[in-house]
Amino acid sequence: MFGGGSTTVKKELPKKAIADMRVQIEMLQKKAKHLETQIEEQTNIARKNVTTNKNLAKSALKRKKMHESNLEKITGQIDSLENNLLAIESANLNYETMKAMQQGAKAMKHIHGNMNIDKVDQTMDEIEEQITLGQEISNAISRPMGNEVDEDELLDELEQLEQETLEEKMVSVGKAPTGKLPSVGEPTKAKPIAQEEDDEEEELRKLQAEMAL
C-alpha cells in the first residue's frame, strides 16, 4: 500500500515541478515588463531635464541603470528556468514513453506466455483439417441421391424425337401447295423429275441443318 503511494508521488512530482516553473516564469516576465516600463520612464525624465536640471537628469539615469541591472538578472533567471523547464518536459516525456513501452512489452509477454511455434503449427494443421472435412461434407450433401438417369437411354430417346420431327417436316413439305391454281386453259408446266429430286434433297438438307442447330 505504501509502495503504491510512493509511486503516485513520484509520478506527480514532474508535473508539479513543471507547473511551478511555469508560474515562476510568468511572474518574472511580468516583473521584467514592469522594469522595462520603469527604464523607459527614467530615460524620458533624463532627456527632459538634461539641459534644465542636470541633477534630476543624473538621478534618473542612475535609477535607469539600476532597473537595467535588475532586468538583466531577471532575464537570465527566465532563460535558466525556460531551459530547465524544457529539460524536465523532455525527460518526463521520455519517462512516460518508456513506461508505455514497458507496459506494451509486458502485455505481449503475457499474450505469448502460453504460445509457442509448435502449438501454432498444431493449431494451423487442425484448422486446415477441419476446412478439408467441411469441403468433403459439403460435397457429400450436394451429391444427388437416387433417380439417376441412364445417359444412353436419354440419347436414344433424343435421337428418336429428332427422327420423328424430321419425318413430320418431310410430310408437311410433300403436301399440295395452297398457292394460286392455274387458270383453265393455261398449261401447267411440269418440273422435270430430276429437278424435283434435287429440290427434295435441298429441302432435306435444310431440315437437317435446322435439326443440327
From TrEMBL:
GO terms for biological process: late endosome to vacuole transport via multivesicular body sorting pathway; vesicle budding from membrane. The keyword Coiled coil applies. The keyword Cell membrane does not apply. InterPro entries: Snf7_fam (IPR005024). Residues 203-213 have a biased composition (Basic and acidic residues). Residues 18-91 form a coiled coil. Belongs to the SNF7 family. This is Vacuolar-sorting protein SNF7. It comes from Geotrichum candidum. The lineage of its organism: Eukaryota, Fungi, Dikarya, Ascomycota, Saccharomycotina.
